[in-house]
Each structure stands twice: as C-alpha cells, then as structure tokens.
Design a protein that fits this description.
- By secondary structure, this protein is of the alpha+beta class.
- The strands form 3 sheets. Strands 2-9-4-7-13 form a 5-stranded antiparallel sheet, with helices on one face. It has a 5-stranded antiparallel sheet with strand order 6-5-8-3-10.
- A hairpin with a 6-residue loop joins β11 and β12.
- It is elongated.
- It starts with a strand and ends with a helix.
- This is HTH araC/xylS-type domain-containing protein.
- Keywords: DNA-binding, Transcription, Transcription regulation.
- GO terms for molecular function: DNA-binding transcription factor activity; sequence-specific DNA binding.
- It holds the Pfam family HTH_18.
Length: about 290
Amino acid sequence: MISTDLGSIYDLAPAVNFAARAEAHENIVWGPRKNPDFQLFYILSGEAEAQIGAEHYLLAGGDCVIYGPLCPHRLRILSEVEYISLHFQWRVPSPEPIHPAYALQSCSDEEMRLYREIGFIVEIPGQDKVQLPAFINMPGLEPYLLRIVQEYSNETPGYAIYLRALMTEMIIALARQLLNRQPPSAERVKIEPALSAIGQHPETNWTVAELAGLCGYHAIYFSAMFKKCTGVTPKQYLISERIRKAKYHLLQGEKMERIAERLGYASIHYFSRNFKDETGLTPTEFKQQEHEL
C-alpha cells in the first residue's frame, strides 16, 4: 500500500467542511469523482461498495473509508443504508467550513484504474507511526461522528472552532485505536527491553550502557535507534516517565520528599527542577492547580 505522510499529530489543525447523517436507497451511485478535501464515509446500517482508485471495499455497519483530496473514488449503495459523510481538512489555518460541493470534479474510469496512493501515515511523537488505511472497521467512531454532525447542523456561536476540537478528539481516538491494533515496528521491538525496564523501575538511575546491554546493542547504536523510535534520548525518556509517575503520586496526596525518594532523586531540589522543566510548573503549583479546577 502506498501511503501519504500527514506529519505529526501534534500539528493537527483540522477543519470540518461538511458533516451529515443521511439515508440512501439501493443502486444509488456517486462518482467516479474527486473531492477538494478529505472525506470519511461511515456506514451506520446497510451495505455499500466503495471503490478508491483500483481498490474495492465492501462496507457494512461500523465500516468506513477515508480518502484524500483529488483521490478518484466511487460509492455504490447495495442496500438501503444509513450513513455519515464527513468532509474535512487535516491542517488549515482557519476552522471555518468550506463546502466541497462546488469543487467536486468528475473523473474517468481510467483515472480510477491508474490511481495507487491509498492510505495515510500519522506520526505520534514517542510512538510508532500509525498506518491509517483507506478501509477501517471502527464502530467506536460513531459517537464522535454524531457529535460532529450535530454541531455542524446547529451552527451555534463558535461552532467552527468547536468542530475543530471535536475533529481533533476523533482523530486522536482513531489513531490510538489503530496504534493498539498494529504490531510494533521492528525497531521498537529492539528497544522494548529498555522501555519495559524504565517503566517498571523509573527509580533506577539507568545509564545508556545498561539500557543498551538489556537490548544487546552497542550504546551508540542503541541511542540512535532509541531516539528514532521515541523522539527523545534515553535520559529524557527516563525523566518523562519519572515525572508522569510523580504527577500521579502528587494527586494521591503523597509528600514531595517521599515521591522524590520513590523515584530515585537524591534531592527535592533536583526533583522539583526536573518537574518544572517537564511540566512548566513546580510540584506545589501542580497540586494547587488541581484544587483550582
């Protein structure tokens, strides 16, 4: 499968151009055509066939297809269906909807046959890249889609920016589920012993050599592979894991001295400095923030 790299999920700035829940009768056909934006077509009930480029997909309840701008596609309704159609952009400055209808283009069967770019890649820093295929079975998307449809239909004040927030939430939820489904990359498997050791024993002052030894690699090679997989150095990963656990213990009411000791810090000062570098807040400010919410 040929995939388009959509970049980091941290750079998300989506806009919903159109969202509707509708019904369609048997034998209705849309296309072949190309959109000016991305489209997600989700089946609530019934059956349909989607052709994206040269590929064919049979859709039933909980199935959806996703394709990008200028992707030749055709949708054929096989039985009475209820569906959600969502047009969106992945990353644009303004969240204001731009209806796609006037920019739809017809295309030929020859364009459909020759098109091969199917699927997308999404980067989540610190994780493997997520493969976002053209066809997905994802019943859990329905609540997100219905909220988007309702907000788009109501057009209440501020709806465009709220749609951006809802769309961001849905994309992140989708990426998480897909990440859990796909096997880890070969490179991540290689550093898994180190990740596991840090997760289970964040209080240990792990050296790069020790972590590399757990994985059976030279320290220099291990460090390069670790940063490629996680986006950070082994030392920074250890600090982040410590601070993640520290936040939990702080919210449980534990004293800073005990937390610092539990997580392997020689002094409260060093713990507090790490905490602020990681979160922008001191441990005390973090705890106070909880009571202000």
